[in-house]
Design a protein that fits this description.
mainly alpha, globular
Length: 656
């Protein structure tokens, strides 16, 4: 029996025993009911939950008006897996006493598990109000909101569960996924409402940097330098992209331009420090970094990793060691610790592990008199800007919410930034800037939650596989590979890890690696549909279409939502092996998976091969319609030549 059920059962047993003196005499002598309950307790203690359920069934027959007995019966039925019976019993308990915690909690949990989150939410909301110390109610409520697609509400409830139990791994994981899904929702909304805005272009340029497409990112940044309004720090982002593109002179000019414009963007200082490091002038770098640290501790801690991103490994390791041994007269100890903590997240362990464990933030700064939030923002003092707004009059108007979102995000307070963006969106439903800050803050929060989830169970193969799946969905294939390899190091031969690594290899343009690993996994599970699909795709990538066919047909036994795509792959294999009629038949079965018109184009070509001009023209018309609809939605893949600026956000983040 799990800990939650056990604790709730004992609580419910205590409640039901209290009422026996009043209720038992209604039907039978009190000692008979007491004996039945004692038998139930004994059966439960020996883990014989079916017997315990039978005893409680007798007990409710003897005293049907006792809600606690119905609740205990429901708990035993829950434990034996008879969820429909448990729901009925909890419903009886709730009808007789709506203020009992256990029935409300489990009715909500069971509705959520049965795919009815909207029915679950009222019961779980009541349960949370009844018991403010049990993390299970907000955890279940957060999951129900998540299933209902209310991702912001889900994250708030999951945070509440975490505040009650910081070691609650499922809450950290689900919160991370909920925030990633909110990022996707916001990105798609931006695709529809503001895909040509500078904020949209900035997000797209950031996604290009993540894909190591630095030249394209730099060109996009340059195209937006004169647009207004524009996201802050765009010149510094240009400079950082130029560093990665090996153009230090262009980068220096971009950072100088940012500072000469009297921008408070600390990225310019970080960029100048990076140029000094690359030139071997660590003293100048530390001087610049000390200036930034004194300006805003939170910004420094949140962005210090920029200093070594993309730096060759020998140089980055040497710089990390130099930071670890820096004298406090050269670099303040707290700044050094903040940098080492940031570097550790990139896989660079500090020589002294205790250093990175120290607190990297000082106490909140006191507010000097006579300065406005806008002035603090302009001078790059984002923590003071946030404090000024938070201590000012309420409610906040749109101007201050916009400023609060920016200042909170820059000083590392991502939760406040997310909340401010949500409130701004409620005041200005079509605010592109609100979407921009929501995307930025929630993405950070998501990865912080997922990192915390992994920390709670660092040696679990399962946690590495889950994180790999997320990285795979985000198209961060190197990270997905790394997580799967960690899982296999912990648990060699783990089927989920082998499947994940083979999938990552395939996505990362390594079909031979995918084939080798899938082949090993198929020796253990020759009929596994997902493994067969990976093997088939890898073979098709190698143009071995005949060899791919048997794997494709085995993969048809997998998830129903994948079947159309598999038919499309079979059709492609037939088309490449001179079987046009069979190919047409399969492609028609796979038409629903055609997201960009390529299947319709292939169908048109095949129809022409068999002399069917009419159907060929109709297929071409369908191809054009799909492309038009796709462009209207603003959802395009990064590989497309006519790229929409926010496609990367919409395509790189999807629900696992």
């Amino acid at each position: 029996m799990n800990g939650l059920l056990r604790s709730l059962l004992f609580a419910a047993l205590a409640e039901s025993t209290i009422g026996f003196g009043q209720q038992a005499t209604v039907v039978k002598p009190e000692h008979d009911l007491t004996q039945v309950v004692a038998e139930a307790q004994q059966a439960q203690a020996s883990a014989n939950y079916r017997a315990a359920a039978e005893y409680y069934r007798k007990a409710v027959e003897m005293s049907p008006e006792t809600p606690e007995l119905w609740a205990n019966l429901g708990l035993m039925q829950q434990e034996t897996g008879d969820i429909s019976a448990a729901l009925r019993s909890f419903g009886e308990a709730n009808r007789r006493n709506p203020s009992l915690y256990v029935p409300n909690l489990f009715i909500g949990i069971d509705y959520a598990h049965s795919g009815q989150p909207m029915k679950a939410i009222p019961f779980l909301t009541r349960a949370e109000k009844m018991n403010k110390t049990d993390p299970q109610a907000p955890l279940a409520l957060g999951r129900a909101y998540f299933s209902a697609g209310r991702f912001t509400a889900a994250a708030q409830e999951l945070e509440r569960a975490i505040s009650l139990d910081p070691k609650l791994g499922p809450a950290w994981f689900t919160e991370g996924i909920a925030r990633l899904d909110q990022v996707e929702v916001d990105a798609r909304t931006m695709s529809e409402e503001g895909k040509k805005s500078p904020f949209s272009y900035d997000l797209y340029a950031q996604s290009l940097v993540k894909q190591s497409r630095f030249g394209e990112a730099a060109s996009l940044y340059k195209s937006q330098l004169e647009t207004l309004p524009q996201p802050p720090c765009i010149r510094s982002e240009l400079g950082l992209a130029l560093i990665r593109e090996h153009d230090p002179q262009g980068a220096a000019a971009a950072f100088d331009s940012e500072r000469s414009a009297h921008s408070g963007c600390g990225l310019a200082l970080l960029g100048q420090a990076r140029l000094a490091i690359d030139d071997g002038d660590n003293d100048q770098a530390f001087q610049t970094l000390s200036e930034l640290w004194n300006r805003d501790h939170g910004f420094f801690a949140a962005n210090a990793s920029v200093l070594i991103e993309g730096m060759p490994q020998p140089e980055s390791s040497a710089f990390v060691s130099r930071v670890a041994t820096a004298d406090s007269a050269v670099l303040p100890n707290a700044a050094r610790n903040a940098m080492l903590a940031a570097f550790n997240q990139l896989g660079y362990a500090a020589p002294d592990a205790s250093i990175a464990a120290e607190d990297t933030h000082s106490a909140p700064s006191e507010l000097p008199r006579g300065r406005t939030a806008e002035e603090y923002y302009a001078s790059g003092q984002f923590e003071l800007c946030e404090n000024n707004i938070n201590t000012g009059p309420k409610p906040l108007n749109a101007v201050h919410l916009r400023l609060l979102a920016a200042c909170a995000y820059f000083t590392g307070d991502n939760r406040t930034a997310s909340v401010a963006a949500t409130e701004l969106r409620s005041l200005e439903p079509h605010s592109i800037e609100a979407l921009y800050w929501s995307i930025q803050a929630n993405e950070r929060l998501a990865f912080q939650s997922l990192a915390r989830f992994q920390q709670l169970d660092p040696d679990s193969a399962r946690s590495h596989v889950l994180l790999a799946d997320i990285y795979q969905q985000l198209e961060r294939f190197d990270e997905a590979e790394a997580e799967c390899k960690k899982a296999l190091a912990i648990k060699p031969g783990d089927p989920a890890a082998m499947l994940g690594l083979a999938s990552a290899y395939l996505s990362n343009k390594n079909p031979k690696g995918a084939m080798e690993l899938a082949g090993k996994a198929l020796e253990q599970s020759p009929d596994d549909p997902e493994l067969n699909l990976i093997m088939a795709q890898a073979l098709e990538n190698q143009r071995e279409y005949d060899a791919a066919e048997p794997y494709l047909f085995k993969s048809l036994k997998g998830k129903p939502q994948m079947v159309p795509r598999i038919h499309a792959l079979i059709g492609k294999a037939y088309a490449e092996t001179a079987k046009p009629k069979e190919a047409i038949e399969q492609l028609k079965l796979g038409e629903s998976s055609d997201v960009d018109g390529t299947l319709q184009y292939l169908l048109a070509r095949l129809y022409r091969q068999v002399g069917d001009t009419k159907d060929a023209n109709e297929a071409l018309n369908r191809m054009k319609l799909i492309k038009q609809q796709r462009e209207a939605r603003g959802i395009k893949r990064v590989e497309d030549p006519d790229l929409s600026p926010v496609e990367a956000v919409a395509s790189q983040v999807s629900t696992p």
